[in-house]
Design goal:
Strand content: 5-15%
Bound molecules: zinc ion
Order of helices and strands: EEEHHHHEEH
Low-confidence stretches: none
Strand order of the largest sheet: 1-2-3
Number of helices: 5
Number of strands: 5
Structural class: mainly alpha
Helix content: 55-70%
Shape: elongated
């Protein structure tokens, strides 16, 4: 497809042929995914059966054969996380059992047997111990990766919820939609706001609300800040 690089421009993950979205960071590519309204290359959101809008600006869009849905990426991360979790659940007991058995055989071979029998038995125990250790290592890596992917999936889900909520989203609502604890949602949304991925507002009642980052508003704010800074300079 036109406009899809082999490696993601943001995170350098390889993009499989025929795909228009980076599996690493979720960035969407391809000229056919350019929104006629906001001109961004974006995913679409299904608002009704077969009716789609731009995930960024909510203008009506048609969905091409390789136009990703906005919720695809969070689901893909969740699936990968689950796969790694299952892998770790299999490898922990298998690796642990093998390592324990290997260690026992090795110790018995050393303590009770002599000569060639001792070497033979210890050798078998040693190989089992090493294989078990590799299994435990794989299990640990898979568990760590599952946790990391789970966190990223939650971030995606939180961002989606914020994008979909008109007038901003409270932490409690976001937690409910992403199915995480309010504490977790709070911590993750704070981090997302710091990274500039969502915007934090306080309404008149003092309630914190997260909303989508409005590039125009933020640019304006920046200009105002700069103007202010220059004004101060002039006064000096
Ligand atoms: Zn990427
Ligand atoms: Zn758009």
């Amino acid at each position: 497809m036109e406009g899809v690089p082999q490696r993601c421009e943001l995170c350098e993950t390889r993009i499989p042929p025929g795909r228009a979205r980076c599996p690493g960071c979720g960035k969407v590519y391809g000229e056919e995914n350019r929104c006629p309204a906001c001109h961004g290359i974006t995913a679409v959101r299904e608002v009704d059966r077969g009716r789609y809008v731009c995930a960024a600006c909510s203008a009506p869009r048609t969905r091409g054969p390789r136009t990703p849905l906005d919720s695809d990426f969070a689901q893909e991360l969740s699936r990968k996380s689950l796969r790694n979790r299952v892998l770790s659940y299999v490898f922990f007991p298998v690796g642990g059992g093998l390592a324990a058995m290997g260690a026992t055989i090795l110790a018995m071979g050393q303590a009770w047997l002599e000569g060639a029998w001792s070497a033979f038995t210890s050798g078998i125990g040693g190989v089992m111990l090493a294989t078990g250790a590799v299994g435990l290592y794989v299990a640990t890596r898979a568990m760590r990766s599952a946790k990391e992917l789970r966190g990223r999936a939650t971030d995606q889900q939180l961002k989606l919820s914020v994008q979909r909520a008109e007038g901003g989203l409270t932490v409690a609502d976001a937690a409910m939609e992403a199915r995480v604890s309010a504490q977790d949602a709070d911590a993750r949304l704070t981090a997302l706001a710091k990274a500039g991925e969502v915007h934090l507002d306080v309404d008149e009642a003092g309630t914190l609300r997260y909303r989508v980052v409005d590039p125009d508003a933020d640019a304006l704010e920046q200009v105002e800040l700069e103007a202010e800074a220059m004004g101060l300079e002039r006064e000096r």
